[in-house]
Design goal:
The complex is a heterodimer of chains A (273) and B (238).
Chain A (H helix, E strand, L loop, with lengths): L1 H11 L6 H19 L3 H28 L4 H24 L16 E3 L2 E3 L1 H23 L1 H11 L1 H6 L4 H27 L7 H15 L4 H21 L7 H12 L13
Chain B lengths: L2 E12 L2 E5 L3 E4 L3 E5 L6 H9 L6 E6 L2 E2 L5 H7 L1 E4 L10 H8 L5 H14 L1 H5 L10 H13 L5 E5 L7 H16 L3 E6 L10 E6 L2 E7 H6 L1 H8 L6
Parallel strand pairs in B: 4-9, 4-10, 7-8, 8-9
Antiparallel strand pairs in B: 1-2, 1-3, 1-5, 5-6, 10-11
Helix pairs in contact in B: 3-6
The chains are: A mainly alpha (273), B alpha/beta (238).
């Protein structure tokens, strides 16, 4: 869930506060796909990744180049994407109503997996596998493709990358599209992981994703993995021992990490915000 | 010699603050041109305007007969300009990736060939190819930034203060590398405040507050007492 947010921040140094709303759109895409056309969610994953990637390209060119020219793009990005988040949420509410929607978990198929005598629902295993595939995909893209070198160059120093002859907007637009595509993938799995989906769920998802990537280090994909593990373990422990307090976990972790290690657990000087 | 590069009537700056006031500059094919100036003279602004990192407000930039002032940075790089900024490298990338970045638009096979050539020319880079750019010393970073710029086989090498932060010994080493490139016929435009670079220059422009204060050959500069006094604080005795 945090990978797309982290990826976009790493390349553009902007915080996409509408990330959770794109996850919400991905979730409703899966819901519509299943309820109207009976499309298997695993097929929806691929379709939505491509569709959201393609949506990301014009969205990037419409919003980001102008934003990056401003004096304080990081601060302005918060305002701009907060506005975008509100718009998406309003459109979502108009389109889908306020009632939570669900997808029957059986459509995803598969049997629960027994590990050390403990039953793990198939959808959880699927979630882990899809996350791993996304991480490996991002790794291969960044470290084994020409565009990946360009993307990492932009992450390292945007102007230096530009003066090396990289078309930074073209590469950043692709990265933005990939970030939205990853949000869509997280969205498709959301109905199965959270149970119900609703148009106003985006804000909570953004906060959770933000907490995860701040714990690990903003803009660092490896940090996102670490942040996700810490968040997941903390959440499980809280739900086991103090369930009524568990919703505070992202906020508490966010405050703790900002007080103890503001650059994140794997952070050096990655974060400028 | 025909002109490879011509800058005419360029004005540029940051926000509303004008830094460049129409300095006219040209570089002939195979020539090494030095832009001398103190801090704040507008050297970096001039080079950034040349490569497109800063938009030129007015004026024209012509490379080999083709107007490029409306081109984007990547188009200018593809047209044959290679720019080495003061930083010159991406410290978070490996040395090999930095070099590959220098030939971003070159086909993979050709890029691999050029990589081998660079490693032959600069063995220190071959030794540390897997290390990060940030792990290199200041001098080696300059070597890497120069090699990275050469990966695209440029027609014009544009360098911003190659001596910045280097000890006199390393400056001499960088000058020797540039001298060799110049001898091979590479056209260069170097912005510097270190007069040691006069040793490799064919012609000099002295930039002062965004305007050309002097232009001529190295010998003409050395013979001009007024310029020596005004810009370098040198007084000739006897």
């Amino acid at each position: 869930m945090g990978l797309g947010l982290s990826f976009i921040f790493g390349v553009m140094k902007i915080v996409n506060l509408a990330h959770g709303d794109f996850i919400m759109l991905g979730a409703f895409g899966a819901y519509l796909g299943e309820s109207i056309w009976r499309i298997n969610p695993f097929v929806t994953l691929i379709i939505e990744f491509i569709v959201f990637l393609l949506i990301g390209l014009p969205l990037y060119y419409g919003l980001i180049p102008r934003l990056l020219k401003s004096r304080d793009p990081e601060m302005l990005s918060l305002i701009l994407f907060f506005g975008l988040s509100q718009i998406i949420e309003a459109i979502g509410t108009m389109a889908f109503g306020n009632n939570p929607e669900t997808i029957d978990p059986s459509v995803i198929g598969g049997q629960p997996l027994v590990i050390a005598g403990q039953d793990f629902p198939f959808v959880w295993i699927a979630g882990v596998v899809v996350s791993l595939v996304c991480m490996v995909g991002i790794y291969l893209y960044l470290y084994h493709t020409r565009l990946g070198i360009a993307t990492r160059a932009i992450m390292g120093n945007r102007e230096e990358a530009q003066s090396s002859g990289i078309n930074v907007h073209r590469v950043s637009a692709l990265a933005f599209g990939i970030g939205l595509g990853l949000a869509a993938i997280a969205g498709v799995l959301t109905p199965f992981m959270l149970g119900a989906i609703y148009p106003t769920m985006g804000v909570d998802l953004t906060i959770t994703a933000f907490a995860i990537i701040v714990i690990g280090s903003l803009g660092n994909p490896l940090g996102t993995i670490l942040g996700g593990i810490i968040y997941g373990l903390s959440m499980m422990l809280m739900e086991t021992y103090l369930p009524s307090w568990s919703s505070m976990i992202p906020y508490v972790l966010l405050i703790l990490i900002l007080l103890v290690r503001p650059s994140g657990l794997l952070g050096r000087r990655t974060r400028n915000a | 010699m025909t002109n490879l590069l011509e800058l005419r009537g360029i004005t540029s700056g940051y926000d509303k603050m004008q830094i460049l006031w129409e300095p006219d500059i040209h570089v002939a094919d195979g020539e090494c041109v030095l832009i001398l100036g103190s801090n704040g003279a507008g050297k970096t602004t001039l080079l950034k305007s040349l490569v497109g990192l800063l938009p030129a407000w007015t004026g024209t930039i012509v490379l080999d007969g083709q107007a490029i002032h409306t081109h984007s940075v990547d188009q200018r790089i593809r047209a044959g300009i290679s720019y080495v900024s003061e930083l010159g490298i991406i410290p978070t990338l490996s040395i090999e990736d930095n070099l590959k970045l220098g030939a971003f638009y070159v086909p993979a096979q050709e890029r691999a060939q050029r990589l081998r050539e660079m490693y032959d020319q600069f063995p220190i880079l071959a030794e540390k190819r897997r290390g990060l750019g940030s792990s290199l010393s200041g001098g080696h970073r300059k070597v890497l930034s120069t090699a990275k710029a050469l990966m695209s086989r440029p027609r014009l090498l544009v360098m911003d203060e190659p001596s910045a932060g280097l000890s006199p010994l390393l400056v001499a080493e960088i000058i020797s590398i540039l001298q060799e490139l110049h001898t091979e016929g590479l056209s260069m435009i170097i912005a510097e405040q270190n007069v040691k670079f006069l040793d490799i220059a064919d012609r000099v422009y002295v930039l002062d507050s965004g305007r050309i204060g002097f232009s001529g050959t190295v010998q003409e500069l050395k013979d001009d007492d007024a310029i020596q006094r005004a810009y370098f604080g040198v007084t000739r005795h006897g």
